[in-house]
Amino acid sequence: PTSGQFTLDIEGASNAMQLSILDPAGRVVYTDVLSGGTTKHTMGLSHLAAGLYHVQLIVGETSITEKLFVR
């Protein structure tokens, strides 16, 4: 759970990545493009309402989605 800052720790990605955070309705509330070789990315989420969100990371044709709880 987070109530402010969230840090994404990425290992082994050498290509550019698209990072998105989606709200419970599936709307994108945050998006960024990370350069290849990025190992950590910190974002402020204090503007988001409390609830369950999904963090989606797309690298090439691979997509990874994880849950994120904002309190």
Average pLDDT metric = 89
Main-sheet strand order equals 3-2-5-6
Runs in which pLDDT lies below 50 for 5 or more consecutive residues are: none
Number of helices: 0
Measured between the Cα atoms of the first and last residue, the distance is 7 Å
Largest sheet: 4 strands, antiparallel
Oligomeric category: single chain
Number of strands: 6
Structural class: mainly beta
Rough shape? globular
Relative strand content: over 45%
User: What level of helicity do the residues show?
Assistant: under 10%
Rg over CA atoms, rounded to whole Å, is 12 Å
Q: From N to C, what is the helix and strand string?
A: EEEEEE
Structural notes for this entry:
The chain has 71 residues and is mostly beta strands. Helices cover 0% and strands 58% of the residues. It has no helices and 6 strands. It has strands at residues 5-9, 17-22, 28-34, 40-44, 51-59, 62-70. The strands form 2 sheets. Strands 3-2-5-6 form a 4-stranded antiparallel sheet, with no helix packed on it.
Features:
71 residues; mainly beta; two-stranded antiparallel sheet
Summary?
The chain has 71 residues and is mostly beta strands. Helix content is 0%, strand content 58%.
